């Protein structure tokens, strides 16, 4: 037995003997290999070697007859020990974070909302509206004006709420929007943002705010009523029609509204939701931009990183959607889509094709095939200036290109005004409201 062991380990017999043969007596049943081997050891170098093996066995639970195997196993054990420490430390850290989070949430849940919390924004809002012409309307008058929000008076629904037609006590015809409840206090971010924007920016091409109403459970915004509805109804409604000159006037009105927002002296305002349903038409089909609940105020010429992407499907700038970087170029993209809709009479996604395709992609494919006029709305029946059509089509495609390709709103407005001049020269005169071409920056 002994000779076999010595021969077996003769090549590598270099034990790491760090302790003497004396060992605390114990049985192998208790896992103490040193005691088990020392009971049968007759002493001397061989006994010391067995003792070294036993010492390693106590540490690892294995017996190795070569130091190479010992070193390999020892390295593995050290790596396992390190991993185990990291796992234990991470688990303890995670446990502490969970406990801390539960304590914070519990504390917040148990903190009652005081009346001051519910109306924290009201003093600031009152100060903002102090010298304005905007009315504070009672909740009773809102319900009386709309016949208790009767479905018959329902006009439409936007991103921030449903809109109803109504008549105030002073006989003014208005559009009343019920703001969706966003926060627990019912006095949502959209409500404040839209009032703040509309108080500061009052222009002919922006729908004016007439009044507001809020209580603990409901919030309303009251606008001037535009009698000819919105652009979407006129483009796609059954029996509805817009002439070429009317379409040009609408594009000019939208561009002027955006230019005012983008160059506002107190801070550039990005609308973020330019689309046909948010372009309202006055008595003479003059365009007015509406809905500022998603708008963002920034310094002129700057871009910012947004934590959430705002806007409507089909009109959101793809670059803003992918990287969250917001600038006026995002409105230019949306306006480019609207221009393509005005030219073609098509919706933002063509569902009649075998493979549904976004409108900007259709426009780019038309450009590549050299068949621009095939893009024209059949309702126009050819009654438009080809030169003006191609001019607007070209700028619309640029607006929906990459951010670097897009013109700013001043450049777009100049092109649109040139298209109007070309069309008026061709027609000689127009039976419709002639656009004011004097307002070129």
TrEMBL record:
Family to which the UniProt record says this protein belongs: Belongs to the protein kinase superfamily.
Transmembrane segments annotated in the record for this chain: 84-105
Name of the protein in its database record: Serine/threonine protein kinase
Amino-acid positions noted as binding ATP in the UniProt annotation, renumbered to this chain: 178
Origin: domain of life: Eukaryota
Leading EC class: transferase
GO molecular function ontology, one term from the record: protein serine/threonine kinase activity
UniProt keyword annotation of Transmembrane present: yes
Keywords assigned: ATP-binding, Kinase, Membrane, Nucleotide-binding, Serine/threonine-protein kinase, Signal, Transferase, Transmembrane, Transmembrane helix
PROSITE patterns for this protein: PROTEIN_KINASE_ATP, PROTEIN_KINASE_DOM, PROTEIN_KINASE_ST
Residue ranges annotated for the Protein kinase domain, each copy included: 149-420
Signal peptide positions (record): 1-19
Gene Ontology CC terms: membrane
Enzyme Commission code: 2.7.11.1
